[in-house]
């Protein structure tokens, strides 16, 4: 099987709601989207936030993806639109100080992944030390999920973020934490 077939299969599985497929797509394209945004924004935090929002929106709208197009190009287009919207919102917020809040929808949490199981098996002291190596917003989402045992909906409410952003942020945090744990061994 070649890479194009593998990508096509992964996208089909993602369209069926397969969480492992979402994780693979995130792994495959995170650096492309993040790098694209880093060049545009010249700001690591903005780039990371926009990348998280990009995958959140893409995963939410994966059923609309037309396989006649290149998946990476579709992601970059979403990312570019999110950046444009962010710039517009910032300009508007300078003129208008009122803020809007987003409604949170409830979705069932998924079963523990391999990353979840590895994280749970770690010695608590070592795990806390490893978590401290993550960026603060990743530390916060890991803390809310694993130590306060909040659902995705509750985390979204606590962080005042859309639930899909929370899912992508948690997925990314788990991947980074897993890399830290593996490098420690």
TrEMBL record:
Superkingdom in the source lineage: Bacteria
InterPro entries: RNA_pol_sigma-70-like, RNA_pol_sigma-70_dom, RNA_pol_sigma70_r2, RNA_pol_sigma70_r4_t2, RNA_pol_sigma_r2, RNA_pol_sigma_r3/r4-like, WH-like_DNA-bd_sf
Record-annotated RNA polymerase sigma factor 70 region 4 type domain positions: 131-177
Residues annotated as domain RNA polymerase sigma-70 region: 31-92
Keyword Transcription set for record: yes
A Pfam match: Sigma70_r4_2
Signal peptide: none
Keyword Amino-acid biosynthesis recorded: no
Keywords, in A-Z order: Sigma factor, Transcription, Transcription regulation
Homology family: Belongs to the sigma-70 factor family. ECF subfamily.
Protein name: RNA polymerase sigma-70 factor, ECF subfamily
């Amino acid at each position: 099987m070649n890479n194009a077939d593998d990508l096509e299969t992964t996208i089909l599985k993602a369209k069926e709601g397969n969480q492992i497929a979402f994780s693979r797509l995130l792994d495959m394209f995170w650096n492309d989207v993040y790098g694209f945004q880093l060049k545009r924004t010249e700001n690591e935090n903005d780039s990371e936030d926009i990348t998280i929002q990009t995958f959140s929106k893409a995963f939410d709208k994966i059923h609309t993806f037309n396989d006649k197009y290149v998946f990476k190009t579709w992601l970059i287009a979403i990312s570019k639109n999110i950046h444009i919207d962010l710039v517009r919102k910032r300009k508007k917020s300078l003129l208008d100080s009122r803020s809007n809040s987003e409604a949170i929808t409830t979705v069932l949490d998924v079963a523990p992944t391999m990353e979840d199981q590895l994280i749970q098996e770690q010695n608590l002291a070592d795990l806390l030390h490893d978590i401290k190596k993550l960026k603060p917003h990743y530390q916060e989402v890991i803390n809310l999920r694993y130590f306060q045992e909040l659902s995705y909906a509750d985390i979204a409410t606590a962080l005042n973020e859309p639930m899909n952003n929370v899912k992508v942020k948690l997925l990314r945090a788990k991947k980074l934490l897993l890399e830290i744990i593996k490098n420690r061994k």
